[in-house]
Amino acid sequence: MSIDHDDSREEGLWGELAWFIALGVVSLLGIAFELAGLESVAEVALLVATLILSSRFVVELVSESKFTVDLLMAFVGAVSLYYGFALEGLIVLALYSVAEVLEERVERLAERSISSAVKLLPKKALVVRDREAVEVDVESIEPGDVVIVRVGEAVPADGLSLSGGLVDMSVVTGESIPVRVRPGTPLPSGSVVIEGPVRVRVSRRPSDSFVQRLVREAVESMERRPRVTRLLEKYTPHMTVAVLSLFAMAHLMVGPERALSIVLAGCPSAFIIGSSFEASYLIARAARRGALIRGGEALERGKSIKAVVLDKTGTLTRPKIILNGSQREREILRLAAAVAVNSRHPIARAIAMAYPDPGLAVEQVREVKGRGIEAVVQGRRVWIGQGSLPACEKSVKVQVEGLGAAEFCVQDEVDPASHSLIQYFRRRGFRVIMASGDRREAVETVARSLGVDEFYYEMKPQDKAGLVEKIRRESGPTAFVGDGVNDAVAMARSDFSIAVGDLSLTRAVADAVAPGGASQVLLIFSSTEGYWKGLLTAFATAALIKAVIASLGLIGLLPLPLVALLGDDGSTIAAVAAGAILSSKVLETR
Fold first, then answer.
1. Taking Cα atoms as reference points, which of 115, 136, 112, 140 lies closest to residue 125?
2. Which of 177, 200, 215 is the last residue of a domain?
3. Is residue 109 domain-shared with residue 233, that is, in the same domain?
4. How far apart are alpha carbons 552 and 532 in whole angstroms?
5. Distances in Å between the alpha carbon of 504 and those of 93, 213, 217, 344, 514?
């Protein structure tokens, strides 16, 4: 399995690194010439290294309109050459080249940690064809194939369990506790069989399955740089002018060699790398637990939230079908379950789990949002839509050609993770509102059980959107969490939106997707909190180290190479580590 754009990304990365590899080679050769007594050759090497940095600065400025810190380092090389500090200048530029190579690789660490999830999927799979198990390449698996997943193996593509077993589904739920599956249980790719083997009927091609899509979406999300990072890059020219001005003053007071400490420690790359890495780290960490956050900007918006509006069904609750005793109705439900497997709607998933019969052949599936889903099962046309049983809070109607119609009650069960989610919102001081299209009795029961005092019922999609705007005016930035089926308008009107459901929803309006439900919603909000705490810690750490190192260099207690190593590279590494440690603690204590 490969991520489609990995090769192009790697080519771009190595194109960037070529400048710094050339800089490092020239600088190291110059150091060798200096130590060998060939001072004039070393000075030529320093001149070439300075020209490399100057050329890169000009290329980035002209082609990308990007003002880089290469100008500062080129200035260091020029000043060192002018004042006869060839060895010191070459060492500083060599350390800078190493630091830039390391920093480029650091920015890819989080991406690689996600991409490694795809590598856990098998290259080969046992597929039942002509009643025999045949080992084939995973890429050749098609929807409808039956795959035998042995103990210790991962499910290669999304599908439906045809047999029972014990499965680790932490790739979706984020929970490490294994799940007991039975026939009809949806199994995402990446789920690991602990007790089996488990037979799985594939519903999606491997390239379109959960883990593969999650990796693609998460890697693309990392490319959306946080607003903080973009602001730092925007003001890099101003920082450069400030640093050079301080250098000029220090030059008059303590001389050129010590004054260079200001330039070396004043490079802003630690702040830029720290903010970019912090966002990538948290996006990667969420993705490793099955949730998707759509870039650094989403993390930034999530921190400013003052109120949250929550849909009920599929977000805080899980629907459950109440079975009837009639044999005809059971047969209707059995056929309906085969159709419902093809829908992402929470009630459809409940039907699929209620009475699964994976051996049924399903054709001509067609789903119309808000109206239902229909298909042909074993030659009979089956339609599933909204019911109207007066004795039920919610019902579903199934029409089967040749068997007639039947209606079934749908009962909402509160997701156990919803209690922890509401408690977390309370601790952060959020105003919590529940909004649902269900009747008052159903909504009030769930609200009371979760301790939510403000709730709205019998709401249409446009009503939810209006409610979001009203809450925004009253309380400030507002988040909306819904199942994504009928909540697109409300999500678009909110400041931060989370879709509980399929990953494809993030392509539309959602800032994040929580396929695993309330537990992953909590993970996403915790990530927004951890981002800002980690970011502030990273910035404070970098600023403190830079100030101390620059001061020591100015008074002559540290030579220039150590100032460069500790003031720039050391502050970057310390900032990244400090930010990651603190944000990790926030996630662990949620």
1. 136
2. 215
3. yes
4. 30
5. 46, 8, 9, 11, 11
Q: Are 353 and 501 in a shared domain?
A: no
Residues 61 and 181 in one domain: no
Reading the chain (590 residues) residue by residue, the pLDDT tens digits are 444 444 444 454 455 678 888 998 999 999 999 999 999 999 999 999 999 999 998 988 888 777 787 888 888 888 888 888 888 888 888 877 877 776 666 656 656 656 666 666 788 889 988 778 888 998 899 888 899 999 888 899 888 888 888 888 876 666 667 888 887 778 888 888 988 799 898 888 888 877 777 777 776 766 666 666 666 666 677 777 888 888 889 888 888 878 888 887 877 777 877 777 888 888 888 888 888 888 888 888 888 899 999 988 778 887 777 776 677 878 888 888 877 776 767 677 777 776 665 566 677 777 776 678 888 887 788 888 888 877 776 788 888 888 888 888 877 788 888 999 999 999 999 999 999 887 788 888 899 999 999 999 888 888 998 999 999 999 999 999 987 656 778 888 899 999 887 666 555 578 898 887 888 899 999 999 999 899 999 999 999 998 999 899 899 888 877 887 788 778 888 888 888 888 888 877 66
Q: Assign 416 to helix, strand or coil.
A: helix
CA distances from residue 206 to 158, 190, 327 in whole angstroms, order as listed: 7, 10, 38
Please give the sequence-ordered ranges of beta strands (E in DSSP) within 75-228, or none if there are none. Answer: 124-129, 132-137, 146-149, 159-161, 165-168, 179-181, 186-187, 192-195, 198-202
Query: Domain holding 344: CATH number?
Result: 3.40.1110.10
Is residue 487 located within the same domain as residue 521?
Answer: yes
The verdict on residue 291 lying in a domain is no
CA-based nearest residue to 417, from 487, 306, 517, 349 = 517
Residues in the chain: 590
Domain range enclosing 13: 6-117+216-283+528-588
Neighbour count for residue 397 (Cβ, 10 Å): 17
Residue 271: other Cβ atoms inside 10 A: 24
- In the chain, the number of structural domains is 4
β-partners of residue 313 are 317
Domain termination residue (choose one: 413, 432, 449): 413
Does any domain span residue 1? no
Q: Is residue 71 part of a domain?
A: yes
Burial of 194 from C-beta contacts in 10 A (0-12 / 13-18 / 19+) = middle
| Within-domain flag for 136 | yes
Determine the residue type at 339: V
Q: Where are the beta strands (DSSP E) in 439-568?
A: 454-456, 478-482, 496-499, 512-513
Q: Where are the alpha helices (DSSP H) in 394-517?
A: 416-427, 440-450, 461-475, 488-493
Domain co-membership, 35 together with 175: no
Is residue 395 domain-shared with residue 279, that is, in the same domain? Answer: no
Strand segments (E) across 130-181: 132-137, 146-149, 159-161, 165-168, 179-181
Is the domain of 17 the same as that of 165?
Answer: no
